[in-house]
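Reminder to self: tokens first, then the designed residues, so the page reads top to bottom the way the pipeline ran.
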């Protein structure tokens, strides 16, 4: 089977499942692009980008931090990559911070770049010569088949995927089924608003770097990662509901619990690759950003701004203090 055939089947498979997070921006972006690729009828003209602020959250809304020096201001805002339509998370403080910034930073700047995304998926997401069926025990394979069929899919379509990529799909599906939508996530709202306002967009990493990081897990680590999302498939939407409820009111403890459940509780390797290592890189980039001048607004997944090895903790080790607003 050729790589292009495998990729095409995966896109069709994901598009089918979407009707029915690894909670990462990569998974959200792939689902969005795969769905668009799999359409057979001519697509309608795209709707204009929504540039309106989000509906107001209760109380003070999600947490926001600020870092200031003599000539720089940097805001840190934790996001949720997928939300239900109409989710209320806006606040005056976030809007004021966003409006004051000339630059807006995201994990990746181009989550809807079809060519970059599909190239990264092709390079890092599949191993047809080492199918899932050869990596799993008979009991694990039976569980995988049961989950895939419950999503309305064919186990043969997921078999050529690497375990980490199969895990992202399995982790994503119960969320989209429950009404969560990557196009309604915080990043997409802020990105559209930034583009409408003519702000400069920046990314801490590329799609290929993000996906290569996921793919750098050890073979045992990948299988452990897949096992986790098979085990939590039935409770994934409920867990995200609790996390979103906490995030909306700025409850950092709720977000820390959710971050840990999708990182350290899976394995130390998952925590290191998905959070600690990336946070250290981003803290270094923020330090460089502060060496310049002006105002920047940074929006990254909330898991990166809570718990151990948070961006703020790593910045504090450099003598840079982030103050919650």
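Designed residues (325 positions):
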């Amino acid at each position: 089977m050729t790589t292009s055939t495998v990729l095409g089947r995966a896109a069709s498979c994901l598009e089918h499942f979407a009707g029915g997070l690894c909670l990462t921006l990569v998974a959200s972006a792939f689902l969005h692009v795969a769905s668009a690729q799999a359409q057979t009828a001519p697509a309608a003209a795209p709707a204009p980008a929504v540039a309106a602020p989000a509906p107001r959250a209760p109380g003070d809304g999600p947490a926001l931090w600020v870092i200031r020096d003599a000539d720089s201001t940097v805001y840190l805002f934790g996001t949720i990559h997928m939300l239900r339509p109409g989710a209320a998370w806006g606040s005056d403080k976030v809007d004021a911070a966003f409006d004051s910034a000339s630059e807006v930073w995201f994990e990746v700047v181009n989550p809807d770049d079809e060519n970059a995304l599909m190239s990264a998926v092709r390079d890092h997401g599949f191993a047809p010569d080492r199918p899932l069926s050869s990596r799993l025990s008979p009991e694990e394979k039976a569980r995988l088949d049961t989950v895939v069929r419950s999503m309305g899919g064919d186990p043969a379509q997921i078999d050529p995927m690497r375990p980490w990529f199969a895990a992202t799909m399995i982790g994503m599906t119960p969320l989209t089924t429950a009404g969560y939508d990557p196009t309604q996530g915080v990043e997409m709202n802020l990105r559209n608003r930034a583009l409408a306002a003519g702000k400069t967009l920046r990314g801490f990493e590329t799609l290929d770097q993000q996906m290569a990081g996921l793919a750098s897990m050890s073979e045992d680590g990948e299988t452990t990662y897949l096992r986790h999302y098979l085990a939590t498939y039935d409770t994934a939407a409920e867990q995200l509901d609790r996390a979103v409820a906490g995030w909306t009111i700025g409850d950092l403890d709720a977000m820390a619990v959710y971050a840990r459940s999708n990182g350290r509780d899976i394995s130390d390797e998952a925590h290191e690759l998905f959070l600690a290592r990336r946070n250290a890189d981003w803290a270094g980039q923020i330090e460089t950003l502060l060496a310049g001048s002006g105002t920047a607004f940074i929006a990254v997944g909330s898991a990166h701004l809570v718990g151990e090895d948070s961006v703020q903790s790593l910045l504090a080790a450099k003598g840079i203090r982030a103050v919650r607003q």
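The longest helix spans residues 268-290.
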